[in-house]
Write a structure and sequence with these properties.
about 90 residues; alpha+beta; Glutaredoxin; 4-stranded mixed β-sheet; 4 strands; globular
Length: about 90
């Protein structure tokens, strides 16, 4: 898979966050987790990415050729975006 930057904004109590983290782990995708209740200014940074939504998880997936911001993604949606990054052209 091309080099990815993956950042998951979430909370410790969010079941959707846990589900997304498990999917990323099963797909062997390294990611940075930012708890918006524990990290100063994290909620503001997340809202700046996702158009002001307070919904978690918000996941940033970025590579050389594309940038995706997912808000409360379903497993199929997250898998599809990861696959799109896997098949992006290398140059």
């Amino acid at each position: 898979m091309p080099s990815l930057k993956v950042v998951l904004y979430g909370t410790c109590w969010c079941s959707d966050c846990v589900r997304s983290k498990h999917l990323l782990q099963r797909a062997h995708v390294s990611y940075t987790e930012i708890d918006i209740e524990e990290v100063a200014n994290a909620e503001g940074a997340m809202k700046a990415l996702n158009g002001g939504s307070g919904k978690v998880p918000t996941i940033l997936i970025e590579s050389k050729h594309r940038r995706d911001i997912l808000v409360e993604p379903s497993d199929p949606e997250l898998k599809a975006i990861l696959e799109a990054h896997r098949t992006e052209p290398s140059s």
